[in-house]
Task: inverse folding
């Protein structure tokens, strides 16, 4: 018997096998079986981000959705960016933010454009009335087995989405950030343990670690902190929409010691911690949530 407030993490969430569920990128939450858990029923806020204003890229689904819910329940107003094709997912998140009594700002658009990235930050600042937290979370992952089949077009798009956009958005946000502001970037276990079929993606996630470490040193004197999160396998639309081949989806998460994928609800508290004043001495760090896969 487990205590009600002390569940066993091995059995608390779905375990493989999972059904094959091919979908085209960027994928939609409603097409996933089982439905990911973003903390809709479980996350309880305690005012840790009261009055803060946050921009979350990729805030429509997956990890970004769980972070948006948690931030709103902690008292933050939240702007989310996503692709226009994800409007359905985004509107669900808008409702969840508003249900927490906070302001939601929906900002669709493609972050592979530098012009759009600049407009995104301007619109977030205008819509929220300022900016205190930036969560760079949008990402593109497309598995390709061989370097011979990895096109320059894909290589370019993965870097534009995961690396260039993060630079463009952060650069545009910096003039708006004051002492106490925080930036949280989403890297990956792939930065440390690259999979052979994620040649381009793994490089971008390693880049994000170096970006985080360099920028954290640069802006420490302003009182701005920059950290990165390294998720292991998480159950989100990124994976069945081409992030992994379908045979890997069936066994998704079985490779880590906990033998299951993480659910987005399980990583949102880490973003809350890094965004809030509670982590005031942590900057330039890489924080894992990998189901036991070592980060080093
Ligand atoms: P997700 O598909 O729910 O979120 C990714 C989001 O990126 C999409 O919702 C989409 O809105 C956004 N996006 C992609 N291309 C875009 C573009 N050109 N313009 C604007 N937005 C764009 O999946 P997720 O797993 O929650 O991904 C969030 C982050 O977590 C990503 O950076 C991903 O690399 C990282 N990550 C995920 C896992 C995992 O196993 N799911 C593991 C490690 C790291
Ligand atoms: Mg999405």
Result:
């Amino acid at each position: 018997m487990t205590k009600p407030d002390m569940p066993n993490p091995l059995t608390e969430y779905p375990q493989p096998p999972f059904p094959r569920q091919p979908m085209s990128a960027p994928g939609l939450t409603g097409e996933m079986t089982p439905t990911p858990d973003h903390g809709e029923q479980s996350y309880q806020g305690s005012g840790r981000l009261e009055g803060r204003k946050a921009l979350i890229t990729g805030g429509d689904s997956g990890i970004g959705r769980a972070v948006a819910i948690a931030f709103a329940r902690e008292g933050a107003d939240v702007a989310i960016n996503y692709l226009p094709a994800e409007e359905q997912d985004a509107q669900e998140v808008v409702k969840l933010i508003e249900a927490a009594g906070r302001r939601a700002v929906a900002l669709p658009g493609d972050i592979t454009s530098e012009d759009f990235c600049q407009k995104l930050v301007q619109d977030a600042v205008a819509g929220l009335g300022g900016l205190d937290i930036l969560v760079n979370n949008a990402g593109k992952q497309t598995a390709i087995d061989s370097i011979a089949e990895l096109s320059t077009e894909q290589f370019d798009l993965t870097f534009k989405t995961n690396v260039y956009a993060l630079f463009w958005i952060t650069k545009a946000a910096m003039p708006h950030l004051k002492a106490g502001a925080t930036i949280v970037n989403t890297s990956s276990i792939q930065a440390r343990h690259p999979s052979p079929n994620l040649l381009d993606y793994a490089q971008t996630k390693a880049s994000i670690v170096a970006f985080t470490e360099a920028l954290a040193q640069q802006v420490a004197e302003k009182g701005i902190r920059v950290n990165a999160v390294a998720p292991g396998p998480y159950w989100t639309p990124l994976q069945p929409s081409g992030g992994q081949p379908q045979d890997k989806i069936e066994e998704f998460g079985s490779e880590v010691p906990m033998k299951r994928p993480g659910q987005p609800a399980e990583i949102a508290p880490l973003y809350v911690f890094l965004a809030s004043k509670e982590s005031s001495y942590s900057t330039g760090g890489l924080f894992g949530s990998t189901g036991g896969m070592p980060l080093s």
Observations:
- The longest helix spans residues 152-173.
- The CA atoms of residues 24 and 97 lie 27 Å apart.
- The mean pLDDT is 98.
